[in-house]
Automatic annotation (TrEMBL):
One of its GO terms (molecular function) is DNA binding. Residues 327-391 form the Cas12f1-like TNB domain. Signal peptide: none annotated. This is Putative transposase DNA-binding domain family. InterPro entries: Cas12f1-like_TNB, EF_Hand_1_Ca_BS. Keywords: DNA-binding. PROSITE patterns: EF_HAND_1 (PS00018).
Amino acid sequence: MTLFARLLFRVKSKRHKITEAALILGVNLGTLSPSGVQRPNPIHNNGMVASKRNKNLMKRTARVYLNDLNVSKFLIVREFLGQCHSIMQYFVDLFWQRQDFSGKLADLPTVHRAKKKFGITTRLGQALAKQASECVFSVHQKQRKRKPQLKWHTVTLFYHFVTISPFKKKGFDWCVKLIGSGAPKLVIPLKSTSVINQRLAQGWQMSKTIRMGLKKGRLWIDFIFEKVRPPLKTQGRVVGMDSNYKNGVVFSDSQVVGQDIYQRIQEFKKRQKNTHAEIKSRLGQALKKVDLSSTKVLSIEDLKKVKQGKRGTFSRLFNRRLSHWLYRTLVQLLERKCEEEGIQLVVKDPFKTSQFCSNCNRWDRRNRKGDRFRCVHCGYQSHADHNAAHNRRAFRLGGSLWSPFLLKFKKSKFWITIETSLKPCWVITEVSTPIF
Ligand SMILES: [Zn+2]
C-alpha cells in the first residue's frame, strides 16, 4: 500500500458530516453486518419457514434452464411471468409514488387494489408486493433518484405456489409443480445438473422456494440451497493472497493456480461472447484446486491496483476493466469458499479508514496506535477497528468487496464519493503517485 502512503484527504463539504450521514443511514456502530440491510421477512415470520432468515445459513443457487419444456407449458409460464412483471411494476410505481422506501410488506388495501385491477389472488399479490417493495428499498438504498424499471421477468415462488419432488418416472430427475394459489397449475419435469447433485452430496438442503425467470427467451429455475455455516476455525495458518491477472492467483503458502487464465484471455477474439462466463468457470475450477484446509485466516487486498498491460489483443482500457472484473469475481469466489470452510476472510484496508476520525472528520496517520484510536485533533477515543468500521460504513465501503463506483479519476486527482442519504458530499484525495 505504498501508493497510498502519501494520500491527502480533506472534506470539502463540512455541512454533511460523515458522522451525521452514518446517523441518517441508521448505522448502528459495528453491529450492522454487510447483510444487515436484510430485514426480517414477514411471510417467513408467520412461522412457515422460520429457519429461512436464519443468519447462520449459507445460501447458494443452482440454475436450470427449461429447454425441454413443451410449447404450451412454455407459453403458460411466459404469460405468468409477464403478468407478474407488470403487477410488480405496478407496485413499484405505487411505492415510489408514496415515497414508501421501508421495504415492509404491503398492507392489505394496497394488495387488494392490485387484486381488483389484475384479477389475481391476495396471496400472489402479497408475494409480488413484497418483491416490489424490496426492489424499491434496495434502489433507494443505493441513492438512485430514478424510479426503478423492472428489467427482468423474474419471480420468487414460495412454497404456497410450488412444490419440488423427485420425478417418479424415467427421463427426468425433478418434478417442479406449480400448485395454483394465483400461479398456474402446471408440472415442470427437470433434469438434474451436476451443480445440484454436488450440492446435495455435500449436505446442502434444497429450499422449498424457487426463483423463476425468463432470460433471452429461455426460461430458467433457480433452486436455492441452504446449509448451516460452519464455525470459524480457531487453528491454522494465516495466508495472504495476491492475484496478478498475468501470474494467476498466488497464495503466500506457495500455492499458485490459474496461471493459464491470462493466456486464455489473450486467445479471445475481440467480439467473442461468453468470455466472462468462461473465465469465471476457469477461475472457479482453479480455486477448487487450492487447499485451504490448514488455513485459519485468509488475507486479501481490497482495492486492486492494476498494472498496465503489455500490448495484447485488447485495448488498455479493456484490459484494465477485465482485470478489475476478474479480481472482483475472484474475491466473490473466495468469499464463498472461505464461508464454506470456516475461514476468516480479512480484507486489508486501502482507504486508511482506521486513520480517519469519525468525530471531527480529519485524517491523520498518527491517530492510530495499535488497537487504540485517539484523534490528535479532537481527542476522540475509540477502538481502532470500531472507528474504522464506522468510517467504512459511512463511506459505503461496507462488506469486503471493493466497490468500483466509489472511485473516480478526474484531472489527475482521485475522488472518492461519499454518499449520504440526502446529498452527496465529496472527499478529495490528492495522489502523488498515480494509482492506476
Ligand atoms: Zn477527531
